[in-house]
From TrEMBL:
Molecular function in Gene Ontology: phosphatidylinositol N-acetylglucosaminyltransferase activity
Pathway(s): Glycolipid biosynthesis; glycosylphosphatidylinositol-anchor biosynthesis
GO cellular component assignments: glycosylphosphatidylinositol-N-acetylglucosaminyltransferase (GPI-GnT) complex
Protein name, as recorded: phosphatidylinositol N-acetylglucosaminyltransferase
Domain Glycosyl transferase family: 263-410
Length: 517
């Protein structure tokens, strides 16, 4: 009878010999030696911890890495999973970055799959331009387009997508993306190499920043490589996460110059139109606009404002417009789809960016590519974006911003939109970004493999108490992953065939002179 039950049990779960010995080690130690009535005693003593430690130590040499076909397929071409809570149909710089980078990586011959949460009725698998495959997993946003943190709730679907798509490398985007942090954690548990791109700057003093920095320290403690979009962003990320500087690379954003180009005919200078395209939130300086716009309208009767974007601060701008009777001089467009941004930019002369913190700001590049003179707050990585003759910088102060706009209006007749467009075209290219990112991918895949115990030692350096908590989180993640392997072995997950399409030209022109390692 015992033999038949044993045969039935092992055939049910399809244990290999090593998994069988590991399972029997813990089960026999608890039940055979002391009986079922002693389980509570085992849970209240260090013996259970010793068993778990022995279990992990014995399995530390048995690591599950990507199959050889994923690691070395297509002669050095990679299968990349982009993960973030921020992707189309949502609008923003991170969304554009992921999409445009993915398109150029596809053009270079790599396989790219995007994973994000569901948006309204958009759920399941969708295909975009050039066969870009997007998994809209059935998780609804909880706060500010972020999914609810579950730690382990996303493990089954992340594991399935990675195996199903034969992924060799996972690339997460944005520090406050919950889905990004969880996917990177699960991928490292499974033995995959992971990258992280930070698109934002954070402080060190307020409670929110302290919490976010600790989460980032946890995620980056075991990351293979990291990318930042500016040198200022790199310094900020290294300070916040404790990541060695040599593991962080600076690859700036770019702009699609074939899409963002000046109007065929130059606009007349009367009236002068100042364009603002931004999310209307505190971080983007919407409160500064409330004070700056009435003063500029008072000083220059021939100036109009066009404001594109939506957010919680839109109410304040609407109140400002009514208070100063500026309905005929301040147009509120609401959320502007990315496909219509160029037409909005081409209706203006000056682009105004009032951000209080900014790692790079793609919107400045898009405006400059359309031939607009930019006025921006001098924060974060903004001074690295454009040369001094293409941008007027100001302190994030209403009076200083008014002075900068006055200076921009004075030099506006000297600006040649077509010449500015050509200069941007020579400086920034998404093809350049893709080639440089490809180099970082190669370096990540060459990083040495590590056992579970070696990885846990990294988390212990994250703090006296936080380090132990992080280790516990990873141990539970490891155990759950092992249970998933038992319940559904990797061989039972169907691998989908690759979709081969003839690649069209990338969204940006190739500039070999800009490519560097």
């Amino acid at each position: 009878m015992v033999l038949s039950l044993d045969q039935c049990f092992w055939s049910k779960f399809n244990f290999c010999s090593e998994q069988r010995s590991q399972f029997l080690f813990s089960a026999i130690a608890i039940f055979t030696n002391h009986g079922a009535t002693s389980v509570r005693h085992w849970l209240s003593t260090p013996n259970l911890l010793h068993i778990i430690w022995r279990l992990m130590a014995s399995s530390s040499t048995h690591r599950s890495y990507p199959p050889l076909s994923a690691m070395e397929s297509n002669h050095g071409k990679h299968s990349i999973l982009m993960v973030s809570d921020f992707f189309y149909p949502n609008f923003g710089g991170v969304e554009n970055h992921i999409y445009l980078l993915s398109q150029c990586l596809l053009k270079l011959g790599h396989k790219v799959v995007v994973m994000t949460h569901a948006y309204a009725n958009r759920s399941g698998v969708r295909y975009m331009t050039n066969g870009l495959k997007v998994y809209y997993v059935p998780w609804k946003p909880f706060l500010m387009q972020n999914t609810l943190p579950t730690f382990y709730g996303t493990l089954p679907i992340v594991r399935t997508i990675i195996i199903r798509e034969n992924i060799s490398l996972i690339h997460g985007h944005q520090a406050f993306s919950t889905l990004c942090h969880e996917a990177l954690m699960h991928a490292r548990t499974m033995g995959y190499k992971v990258l992280f791109t930070d698109h934002s700057l954070y402080g060190f003093a307020d409670i929110g920043s302290i919490h976010m920095n600790k989460v980032l320290q946890f995620t980056l403690a075991d990351v293979s490589q990291a990318i930042c979009v500016s040198h200022t962003s790199k310094e900020n990320t290294v300070l916040r996460s404790g990541l060695p500087p040599e593991k962080v690379f600076v690859i700036p954003n770019a702009v699609d110059t074939t899409m963002f180009k000046p109007a065929s005919e130059r606009l007349v200078m009367d009236p002068i139109v100042i364009v603002v395209i931004s999310r209307l939130v505190y971080r983007k300086g919407a409160d500064l606009l409330v004070e700056v716009i009435p003063e500029i309208c008072r000083l220059y009767p021939n100036v109009r404002f066009i404001i594109g974007g939506d957010g919680p601060k839109r109410v304040r701008l609407e109140e400002m417009r009514e208070k100063h009777s500026l309905q005929d001089r301040v147009d509120m467009l609401g959320a502007v789809p990315h496909a219509k941004v160029r037409s909005v930019l081409n209706s203006g002369h000056i682009f105004l960016n009032s951000s209080l913190t900014e790692a790079f700001c793609i919107a400045i590049l898009e405006a400059a590519s359309c031939g607009l003179l930019t006025v921006s707050t001098c924060v974060g990585g903004v001074p690295e974006v454009l040369p001094d003759d293409m941008i007027v910088l100001a302190k994030p102060d209403p009076s200083d911003m008014v002075h900068a706009i006055k200076k921009a209006i004075k030099i506006l007749p000297q600006i040649d939109p077509q010449e500015m467009h050509l200069r941007i075209k020579g400086m920034y290219s998404w093809q350049d970004v893709a080639k440089r990112t490809e180099i970082v991918y190669d370096r990540a895949l060459k990083c040495p493999d590590q056992t579970l115990l070696e990885r846990l030692s990294r988390y212990l350096t994250c703090g006296a108490w936080a380090g132990k908590l992080f280790c516990l989180v990873m141990i539970v993640d490891y155990i759950l992953w092992r249970l998933l392997q038992v319940w559904q072995p990797d061989t039972e997950v169907e691998v989908v065939p690759d979709l081969n399409l003839s690649r069209s030209n990338c969204v940006a022109q190739v500039h070999p002179s800009n490519v560097s390692s």
